[in-house]
Amino acid sequence: MASRRVLSGLRAVRQPPPPPPPLLLLLLLLLAPWAVAGHAGKYSREKNEPAPPSKREPAAEFRMEKLNQLWEKAQRLSLPPLKLSDLHTDLKIQERDEFKWKKLKAEGLDEDGEEEAKLVRSLSVILAKYGLDGRKDSRVVSSNFIDHGPDDESLEDPRLEKLWHKAKTSGKFSSEELDKLWRELQHHKEKVQEYHALLETLGGTGAESHENAIGPVDLSGVQAEALASRHAELKDRLRSIGQGFDRLRRVSHQGYGAETEFMEPRVLDLWDMAKSANFTEKELESFREELKHFEVKIEKHNHYQKQLEISHQKLKHVESFGDQEHVARNKERYAMLEEKTKELGYKVKKHMQDLSSRISRARHNEL
Questions:
Q1: Given pLDDT bands bounded at 50, 70 and 90, which one contains residue 262?
Q2: Entry pTM
Q3: Residue range 86-104: average pLDDT?
Q4: 295 C-beta neighbours (distance < 10 Å), count
Q5: What is the enclosing helix (H) or strand (E) of 238?
Q6: Contact assessment for residue 193 and residue 139, using Cβ atoms and an 8 Å cutoff
Q7: Taking CA atoms, which of 17, 57, 238, 318 is between 20 and 30 Å from 34?
Q8: SS3 326
């Protein structure tokens, strides 16, 4: 008997408990998610999966706020893409020079303040060059010869217009040579505009005000040195303008000869200035070789400028149809070309500054 009771007890233990009433089961199902969430702690999905990134403001284009403000203003003015690219290059160079100056100032190496004054003049020229100084946009440089052809753009100088008309009607130029001459004339116009912007920036405190003073001007040594530096800067620019015009006048009358070594106006300018500087024969030959490399760099930049302009026109065309897939693809290509054009523009401008500085040093060694 006893063994039977034990066996029946064991069977009772082995049998599963009876199912809970339906109401209790319903309550358990409703409360289970809350219990799990309450005890999940650091092992929960919310704790371990990263939160979606918050929407941030796009990164600033420049590290200096005043340059960002100029860049934003230029975009609001809807400047052409190539002009915006050129402005971006000039602002990048300005930013680089300003940070260099801050380092000089911290080391006490700009006691006369002339380096700071150069930066102010440089920024003023940029403002005038791109019509960002609040004045009527009559002096804005149109360096984007791709946007406009010779037939619908003025050279804004009767002397240049006369040279262009003479060259067009002379029969001495092929269509490629006329394109080249047009770029040279445009480049010369830009140089003249920049010179006048710089002259205006110097204003009442500039070199010309002391030259025209009736009585003797009492200047300290520091002031005299700063004034001499400004004289030299203006003199170098004026000499370059004079040499450039003489060359344009010669070419428009005679055509391009077989001896023409370079095609790009900026390279031609540098070569003409180098030949009149105090270079030895060996130094001049070395400079010539470097100019060849520089011209290749400019040609590459010009290629991307053309592609950027084509991409801009295509993007405007695609946007008018509202095909989002095509618009997205064209926007991506335009952004890539824009970035590459900016990058090459900076390299070209920096290289040109370095080459111009070498010529300037060689010239001043003549004194």
A1: confident
A2: 0.69
A3: 93
A4: 19
A5: helix 221-254
A6: yes
A7: 17
A8: helix
Count Cβ atoms within 10 A of the Cβ of residue 155 and give its class: 0-12 exposed, 13-18 middle, 19 or more buried.
middle
Q: What pLDDT score was predicted for residue 26?
A: 47
d(C-alpha 84, C-alpha 215), whole Å: 46
The answer to whether the CB of 155 falls within 8 A of the CB of 189 is yes
Whether 252 contacts 167, CB under 8 Å: yes
The residues, ordered by sequence, that sit 6+ positions from 271 with a Cβ below 8 Å of its Cβ are 261, 262, 288, 291
The predicted model gives 318-341 an average pLDDT of: 89
Summary mean pLDDT of the chain: 77
Q: Render 275-330 in DSSP notation, one character per residue.
A: HTSS--HHHHHHHHHHHHHHHHHHHHHHHHHHHHHHHHHHHHHHHTTT-HHHHHHH
pLDDT of residue 205: 44
The single residue listed with the structure tokens 């149809």 is 321
Whole-angstrom distance, CA of residue 264 vs CA of residue 183: 8
Task: Using the Cα atoms of residue 285, residue 299, residue 348 and residue 244 in order, give the sign of their dihedral.
Answer: positive
Q: What is the tally of helices (H) and strands (E) in the chain?
A: 13, 0
CA angle 291, 263, 196 (to 5 degrees): 85
216 pLDDT more than 50: no
Sequence letter at residue 341: T
pLDDT digits (tens, 9 = 90+) for 124-177: 889 988 888 876 544 444 444 333 344 446 788 899 999 999 999 988 888 888
Contact 252, 173 (CB under 8 A): no
Q: Is the pLDDT of residue 332 over 60?
A: yes
Percent of the chain with pLDDT over 70: 69
Q: Which are the contacts of 285, defined by CB distance < 8 A and separation ≥ 6?
A: none
The first and second tokens of residue 348, run together, are: 């070209």
Length of the chain: 367
How buried is 39 (Cβ within 10 angstroms: 0-12 exposed, 13-18 middle, 19+ buried)? Answer: exposed
3-state secondary structure of 67: helix
Concatenate the DSSP letters of all residues of 155-176 into one string.
-S-HHHHHHHHHHHHHS---HH
